[in-house]
Design a protein that fits this description.
Layout: E1 2-8, H1 30-49, E2 54-59, H2 69-79, E3 84-91, E4 108-113, H3 121-134, E5 137-143, H4 149-158, E6 165-168, H5 179-188, H6 192-195, E7 199-200, E8 205-206, E9 212-216, E10 220-224, E11 227-233, E12 246-247, E13 252-253, H7 256-259, H8 267-271
Parallel strand pairs: 1-2, 1-9, 2-3, 3-4, 4-5, 5-6
Antiparallel strand pairs: 7-13, 8-12, 9-10, 10-11
The structure holds iron/sulfur cluster (2 copies).
One iron/sulfur cluster binds next to loops.
Length: 285
C-alpha cells in the first residue's frame, strides 16, 4: 500500500513576521518544542516500522519547522528509509541548507514560500541556488496580493526556467483580481485558476481518508486538514480498518493541499507524483 501523510504537529512559532499570518513572530515555549520534538521522533519511528507501507510524507507545520534541528534530522532520517518514497515540507527557506547534504537528496522535496518584505529577493534566490547546486527538488510560491504582482513577475524572470513558481490566490473577496491582474498571474502560474476558486466539494470523491491522511502530533488521524472528524490513531489502530474511499463532507475546498486530491480535477496528472510539494514539470508551465 502507498500512503501519503500530511503531518502537522504542535509547533506554530515562526521567525518571520508576515502581516497576513496568525503565526508571525509567535514563539513556541521550550515545553512545546520539547513535545513537538518527541512527537516527531515517535512519528519517524512509526514510519520506519511500517515496512509494508510505501510512504509519501509531507510536513505542513503552522509555523517554520526547518529552523529546528530536530525537523532537519527527521527529514534526513526519513530520506534514508527504504519505505519512504518522498519527504516534503513547507518552509520559508530561511534555514541554513548544509544539513541537506546528509539526506538522500532525491527523496527530499521543499515547498518554499517567498515572503517579500521578510527576506530580500537576493537572499531568497541565493538559497534557491544552493538547492539547485545540491540537486534538491523544490517549488517556489508567493501569496498573490495585487500589490505583489510585479514582484511575482520579477521572481519568475530570475528563477531558473524549469523551476515552477506557484501563486496562492486571494479569494476571500469575490472578483479580487481584475482581468489584467488575473492574466498576469496566469502568465506566471498557468495553474493559478485552480487556486482562485473554492471548489465545490461536498459529495465529490477525494482521495483523502483513503490514500492520503492528515496526522497530528499525537497520531490522531483525520482525512485532511480541513475536516476535523477523527478517524483513528496511527499508534493505536490498524490503518487497513480505517482507510477507504470517501466523498467530501465539506461544502468547498480552496487550498492546494486539499483540492489537489479531488478525483475530478485530475490534478495528479498535472503534478505527476509531485502533488504534495506542488512541483510541476518544466514542460507543463
Ligand atoms: S513565514 Fe509562513 S508561518 Fe512564518 S509568518 Fe510568514 S506566513 Fe506565517
Ligand atoms: S475536498 Fe478538501 S475538504 Fe474535502 S475531503 Fe478533500 S481535502 Fe478535505
Amino acid at each position: 500500500m502507498t500512503l501519503s501523510i500530511l503531518y502537522r504537529g504542535v509547533l506554530s512559532g515562526c521567525n518571520y513576521d508576515c502581516p497576513y499570518c496568525p503565526f508571525a513572530k509567535r514563539k513556541d515555549t521550550r515545553a512545546t518544542l520539547a513535545t513537538d520534538a518527541q512527537q516527531v521522533a515517535r512519528f519517524v519511528q512509526f514510519v520506519k516500522q511500517q515496512t509494508n507501507i510505501e510512504f509519501k510524507l509531507f510536513f505542513t507545520p503552522w509555523g517554520e519547522a526547518l529552523i529546528r534541528r530536530y525537523y532537519q534530522q527527521a527529514l534526513v532520517e526519513l530520506s534514508h528509509c527504504s519505505n519512504v518514497q518522498k519527504i516534503a515540507i513547507q518552509t520559508n527557506l530561511s534555514c541554513a541548507t548544509g544539513w541537506l547534504q546528509k539526506a538522500l537528496k532525491e527523496k527530499i522535496a521543499l515547498w518554499c514560500t517567498y515572503h517579500p518584505g521578510q527576506v530580500s529577493r537576493e537572499a531568497f534566490l541565493n538559497k534557491c541556488s544552493e538547492l539547485d547546486a545540491m540537486g534538491v527538488t523544490y517549488s517556489v510560491g508567493i501569496v498573490g496580493f495585487k500589490e505583489t504582482i510585479p514582484e511575482i513577475e520579477t521572481m519568475r524572470t530570475l528563477l531558473p526556467k524549469e523551476r515552477y513558481l506557484w501563486v496562492n490566490a486571494l479569494k476571500k473577496q469575490a472578483d479580487y483580481y481584475d482581468n489584467n491582474e488575473r492574466e498576469r498571474l496566469i502568465a506566471v502560474d498557468p495553474y493559478v485558476p485552480y487556486n482562485m476558486v473554492h471548489h465545490e466539494s461536498e459529495g465529490k470523491a477525494c482521495r483523502t481518508g483513503h490514500t492520503v491522511i492528515s496526522v497530528d502530533g499525537e497520531g490522531n488521524i483525520y482525512r485532511c486538514h480541513f475536516i476535523k472528524e477523527k478517524l483513528g490513531n496511527i499508534y493505536q489502530h490498524d490503518l487497513n480498518t480505517i482507510l477507504k474511499p470517501r466523498a467530501c463532507t465539506n461544502a468547498t475546498c480552496g487550498c492546494h493541499i486539499g483540492y489537489v486530491h479531488m478525483d475530478h480535477l485530475n490534478l495528479y496528472e498535472v503534478y505527476n507524483g509531485r502533488e504534495l510539494e506542488r512541483v510541476v514539470a518544466a514542460t507543463r508551465h
